[in-house]
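In this section we walk through a basic example: taking a raw amino acid sequence and producing a predicted 3D structure, encoded as discrete structure tokens. The instruction is simple. Fold the sequence below.
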Amino acid sequence: MVGSLERIVRWADGRVPGVPAFGVIPPDRPERFITIERTGGSRGRLMETPTFAVQVWAGSILDADTLAATLCGECQKLRRQAWVASLTVGSPYNFPDPDSGQARYQFTLEVGVMLAYLND
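The resulting token sequence is shown next.
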């Protein structure tokens, strides 16, 4: 069974041209990339509503801001997916990485996922 995190990462990969998406920080970091991690939510028998932290990494704060705004717009298109029952896209904010100092923006994504569709 494909989990909701894997489904979201696959969906996000390539949504912003030249910006790959991952479920973890890759060991060989590209200059620009997206990470998505599940930070909470709920799960029932037929549906789950996970909350994801979506982080957009870039070479500068302006680039991270622009890429995050683009990805937020793309995330609105998740509504078109058969497996999505509800969607809330948060507002991006500056969230620089404390370890590397790399520019990063973050926003939350809450997706009502119809579990029967995850294996399609």
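Looking at the output, two observations stand out. The helical segments are 4-12, 61-75. The first strand starts at residue 21 and ends at 22. In the next section we compare this with other chains.
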